[in-house]
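Good morning N.,

You mentioned wanting to compare the apo and holo forms, so I went ahead and generated the holo version with 5-hydroxymethyl-3,4-dihydroxypiperidine. This is what I fed in:
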Amino acid sequence: MTALKFPENFIWGVATSAYQIEGAVKEDGRGTSIWDTFSHTPGKIRNNENGDVAADHYHRWKEDIALMSEMGLKAYRFSTAWPRIQPAGTGKVNKKGLDFYDRLVDELLRRKIEPYVCLFHWDMPQPLQDKGGWPNRDTCAYFAEYAGVVAECLGDRVKFWFTENEPWVLAFIGHFLGNHAPGKKDIGATLKSLHHLLLAHGLATEAIRSAVKQPVKIGITLNLHPVYSATDSEKDKAAAERVDMFINRIVLDPLLKGTSPIQGSTVAKILTARVIQDGDLEKIRQLDMLGVNYYTRAVMKHSNKVPVLNVEQVQPVGNDYSGMWEIYPEGMYQTLKKVWDYKPTCEIMVTENGIPVPDGLDFDGRVRDERRIRYLQSHIAQVHRAIEDGIPVKGYFHWSLLDNFEWELGYGQRFGLVYVDFKTQQRTVKDSGRWFAKVIEENAL
Ligand code: IFM
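and this is what came out, ligand included:
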């Protein structure tokens, strides 16, 4: 088979997030986040686990960067923890918290790994939640203030910025389904949160631009899923369209077109009356890079199972599944194509893709995660297919570097290229890590 060659300068990276790997939640003046509160509420997380220690990256960051360097990674997308930097969410800056990221960036650059900073991966300072959280419009200004603080500090070295990771997840899973922090079940709060998260992206973009002297690229990362109808019936097709609107278009339209699909929906219009204010949509539509996080597709049918939306997800028989989702490589291509159909003027890159596998150390200390290798092979091939079709995908960031705290599922779902023994914190590069290193070295699949 001929190798699938990637464009020169294709960005091969990995991604992580602060709460999922750092631990040290009470160290060096870090404040409390909504995830500390949520994970310490009995019954919210599988086995009542939490991110108190996680992968102890706050102490082992040098070792972790050395592993990245060994794998030949070109880029690293990590998130800064807002409560580490501004424990109250606004006002006083905690220098010790900021220093951690300062050192991290220096070490990455020393190792020739490009830092991609994401300012927000869901760990909202608890004091801001107490003031109303994302449904409160003031939060947008607090976020812009925080973005300015981080940009002031790191902006002389960091050229690539993501304001937020997957705002949809925080809005919908955190405020509608209630399975994530802050654990609300309120459709009005959900739609308000999402709009405010998008507006906060726009305000933070402006704050970064005014704090940083050098040219930078600023973007956002989105969880996107191609949506299919379970059958050819008109009802199921309409259900699929509703879900497409509420998962994909609800974020893509404002960011790429400057319009909002919920303005056309009666229910949503009532719920968001006066939430979308004049000028908001222009603020939101500021993007140099769009990060696509792709894991799986959604196959939908009409049903009363999910209120308001009247839909139900179907799991097609005969396909492959992981511990969390259906495995559907073609969806990677379809998602990139969907974004490209908007004719975006910004750059596109895959900022997350990966699979949870119940990995373990074999008798000889190796982790033979063939399943992850097959997953990556098939999904990266679809990225290549998109590039061949003229979609200029700039890079691919694997989720994740390390096994980590998978939110409400705790530590059971391992996504890393590096195995973490959570008792000893010992790291072992998995077979997939070595395989990925070879892909990077050859710039080919
Ligand atoms: O672990 C998460 C990450 O925080 C956001 N995107 C999806 C990953 C896997 O569920």
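Residues 11-226+282-297+324-439 form a domain with the TIM Barrel fold (CATH 3.20.20.80).

Happy to go through it together on a call whenever suits you.

Best,
F.
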